[in-house]
Write a structure and sequence with these properties.
7-stranded mixed beta sheet, about 375 residues, 2 domains, 13 strands, 10 helices, Aspartate Aminotransferase, domain 2, Aspartate Aminotransferase, domain 1, alpha/beta, 4-stranded antiparallel beta sheet
Length: about 375
């Protein structure tokens, strides 16, 4: 079985490190990212004012190429970076006329930042939101498409892999095709899919936005999120920083703010580029391993099955339901629905076992740094709890 713990010697592979089963929440960084972080500092010291020429001329284009390769996108220039995906959500909203009440289609299980922002707009009468229940999972895509058929939506926003269950929308390209006549913007939240499951956006690259970042399975840490921007959609967002003008600097002025025509039209302003260094280093490292995302996901699913087989009938989780029981339909974490989620999390933390929970959902994440012995240790910790 795949075992890459040696490549995480400064974190989960260090002597005495806690048992970390929360890769879906905050993925440990591999050792190569530390060297990259130091390189960012060294370049800043060496290049001084010329640092940004290096960042925009070398570092950022490499990161765009890596993302485009993983997602099978035809043009790396469609990728724009920002410190977080919330920045992109706000810029997408700002593409519509000021004062317009946005008609938004979403599930009832989107991540907190999107849910919070849209609810706040709803409070002010600036958004009308149709929320399609995620459950039952088996019929979600059909029900979401049926809801879209009412038409007139400004934005249809949907996760590829849902954060609070791990459920994977099985045919994201097919769903985008079904949504296409009924929504102006189609936005896919890919944060729990990017670098976790094989994703091919080639068929929908010209129609859908895609958001993700480095904090989870890309293993590059915070501050390095990105959005793929389909050509022609949202040419002039009101929420705009000066980097969005780089692609238009040579165009004649006509009294209006200029924008690049590629993904840079959604760029912000000055940012910390060290995340790009880390992302590039991790991507190069992944390529050097020669292990596909499919093989990595198979490794994770095998560990999940070992864990489920070892729970037994009397363990603390034995009686609690999995949010997604079908292995091909879930991502890299298991979600148990239980009113004891917080208590189990805290009891495991006292044993130096890291998981996480959201309300009544205990999430246990598996990664490429785990092996069978880690799962055995997790099972021992769980099966000796009394909560």
């Amino acid at each position: 079985m795949l075992s890459l713990k040696a490549h995480f010697s400064q974190s989960v592979g260090a002597p005495g490190a806690p048992l970390h089963f929360a890769a879906h929440s905050h993925h440990p960084w591999p050792d190569v990212s530390r060297t990259a972080q130091m390189q960012a500092w060294d370049d800043a010291a060496r290049l001084l004012d010329d640092k940004w020429g290096h960042v925009f001329g070398t570092v950022l284009p490499e990161a765009q190429r890596h993302v485009a390769r993983v997602l099978h996108l035809p043009d790396p220039g469609s990728i724009v970076f920002a410190p977080n995906t919330h920045d992109f959500v706000v810029r997408l909203f700002s593409c519509f006329p000021a004062g317009k009440t946005l008609r938004i289609l979403a599930s009832d299980a989107e991540f907190h930042s999107f849910t919070r922002q849209t609810m706040r707009l709803e409070e002010e009468g600036l958004a009308e939101i149709v929320r399609v229940p995620l459950q039952p999972h088996e019929t979600f895509a059909a029900r979401f498409a049926a809801a879209a058929s009412a038409g007139g939506f400004d934005i249809a926003f949907v996760s590829h892999v849902f954060f609070n269950s791990g459920f994977i929308v099985p045919d994201i390209a097919g769903l985008v095709a079904a949504l296409s006549p009924h929504a102006h913007f189609i936005v896919i939240d890919g944060y729990h899919g990017f670098m976790a499951i094989e994703t091919d956006l080639s068929a929908i690259a010209g129609r859908a936005f895609y958001l993700a970042g480095g904090y989870k399975y890309a293993m590059a840490g915070e501050g390095v999120c990105f959005m793929h921007c389909p050509p022609g959609y949202g040419p002039r967002p009101r929420d705009t920083g000066w980097y969005a003008e780089f692609g238009a600097l040579e165009k004649p002025r006509d009294g209006r703010i200029g924008y690049g025509s590629d993904g840079s039209r959604f760029a912000g302003a000055t940012f910390d580029p060290s995340g790009l260094y880390r992302l590039n280093a991790v991507m190069r490292w992944q390529q050097s391993l020669g292990i596909s995302l499919g093989a990595q996901h198979a490794h994770v699913l095998a560990l999940q099955q070992q864990f489920l087989d070892g729970l037994g009938e009397s363990g603390v989780l034995a009686a609690h339901m999995l949010a997604v029981a079908d292995a091909p339909s879930r991502g890299r974490f298991l979600t148990f629905i239980t009113q004891k989620a917080g208590a189990i999390h805290d009891a495991l933390a006292a044993k130096r076992v890291m998981t996480d929970y959201r309300a009544d959902r205990l999430r246990i994440g598996f990664g490429i740094y785990h092996d069978e012995r880690d799962v055995e240790a997790l099972l021992h910790a769980l099966n000796t709890l009394s909560v």
